[in-house]
Amino acid sequence: MKEKSTSVRIKHVATATLLLIFGAASAYAQPSHVSMTVSGSAAASTVNLQPGVPASEYQLAGNGNLGPFTLRVISAGGTPQQSSSCSGPLKLFIPVVAGGALARFENGDLLTVLLTGGNDCIDFAAGHAICTRVFQVTGGTGRFDNTSGGTLTLVMTVKPALGNASNSPVFFSVTGTVTGTL
């Protein structure tokens, strides 16, 4: 009888050990679906992504299924164009032509992404813009060390927060979401 209870205990210990190992592995595994919220500010950037093309810089913080993070985005817009998705008498559509972003998570892990598309739809009547940035994941550190190829989409509502001496907006509030896959 003693042999049987020792054998049962060993099986229970082995099962508990496996559960702990798989539980710890799942805690460190990155989910394939990303869902996060962000808020922060935006302003003109001194970074020159393309000669003669003004760049914007977004300083954001947020939280989601990957944990708390900060996000710095730099992007440059192109020439205003016509667009059926952003049309109306007081709307302006601007494609985004270059950029990238770096996310820093609370534990120090970094995630880098490169801009692959996006646009700004400025609605003068509503007093805000809907800005979309589409990124390809290019790598990172820590849990993102071997991560690449996923797609993340940042959709922001951008509102003027401060104007210059001629009352043109120069500093903006930002709220939004980041969704996609790693």
Low-confidence stretches: 12-29
What is the rounded distance between the termini? 52 Å
Q: From the helix content, strand content and strand pairing, which structural class follows? A: mainly beta
Q: What's the total count of β strands? A: 8
Order of helices and strands: HEEEEEEEE
Widest sheet: strand ordering:
1-2-3-4-5-6-7-8
User: Count of DSSP helices?
Assistant: 1
Describe this structure in words.
By secondary structure, this protein is mainly β. The protein folds into two domains: 29 residues; 151 residues. Helix content is 15%, strand content 54%. The protein is built from one helix and eight strands. A hairpin with a 4-residue loop joins strand 4 and strand 5.
Short key terms for the protein model shown above:
mainly beta
SSE arrangement:
Blueprint: H1 2-28, E1 33-44, E2 55-64, E3 69-77, E4 91-105, E5 110-123, E6 128-140, E7 151-163, E8 169-181
Antiparallel strand pairs: 1-2, 1-8, 2-3, 3-4, 4-5, 5-6, 6-7, 7-8
Summary?
The chain has 182 residues and is mostly beta strands. The protein has one helix at residues 2-28, and strands at residues 33-44, 55-64, 69-77, 91-105, 110-123, 128-140, 151-163, 169-181.
